[in-house]
From TrEMBL:
First-level EC class: oxidoreductase
Transmembrane segments: 319-339
MF annotations from Gene Ontology: heme binding; heme oxygenase (decyclizing) activity; metal ion binding
Protein name: heme oxygenase (biliverdin-producing)
Organism: Mastacembelus armatus
Any one GO biological process: heme catabolic process
Amino acid sequence: MFYESAFLFSFSCWREETKEDCIKEGEDCTEGTNSTEHSDRTQRKTADTEQTTGPKGLHPIWTTMETEKTQTTAAQMTDRDLSEQIKKVTKENHVRAENTELMLSFQKGQVTLGQYKFLLCSLYEIYQALEEALDRNSNHPAVAPIYFPAELARVESIEKDLQYFYGTDWREKIVVPRATKRYSHRLRQIGKENPEFLVAHAYTRYLGDLSGGQVLGRIAQKSMGLKNGEGLSFFSFPGVSSPHLFKQLYRSRMNSVELTEEERNGVLEEAVRAFEFNIQVFDDLQKMLSVSENQQNSTHSKPGKTLQLPGTIINTLPLLRVALGLFLALATVSIGIYVL
């Protein structure tokens, strides 16, 4: 299926770029062309159609993107590139993440409204913690190169979706599992103690959502019957006119971050931890959804259970009332006799 090639959700971040991906993103990825030629064609296309152009007044980084030679294609990657190392150490976790029940629902195009709403609630908590930490450490030498709030920030987009589904008082209605709270706590913790670890979480989340956003947005829209993009702002990146070029730039910037051997190992361990946090969140969300559905089913069921006897159906609730009445009557009579 077409969406299986776009590794799901936050776990598609380290996927190899392919010619097919570029075609899906509306770009020309003819082999043998360098990034400068690619940029020239992109500029010509964006002048012809508004669909491939971001809003006016974009972050200055887009000027840099058109002039800076990108050197992060698969052929140019080395074993010392941080992005390649993260891809290698998280490979097993990636497979496990794809096989969680929630992600399988996306793969099959069967995501439910309940699943999506619960997911948005957790994503809001996670991105709020991540973006607060990134903002606080925007000048940190490890964070500054990969700090793109104008292009990647998700909190406001998720807020729009939550308001659409839950109403203006959505903040009072959202609920998240414990795994989400643990994830958010970890993000705030490393923001204070080890800002360089934020590189692993930002890469895993942002590039994952950017890579699979368009495809997964279409799946969600079709599965839930949403119209005009309502409730799907999370999947939209209006500040990124060329996802393919932006991902190349992002990897290039991330690979340029100078880290000691100890810090690099710490970032790699944090990348594995990021995947584990996401897996735990997805599993907990599915459990929470099951509990919610069971409660709804019990609410809609008929009051009072029935006791099945051969040839007879006795409603247990009236039976208890009769028994209680007899008990009270006997107690009253007994007390009266004792007093006499």
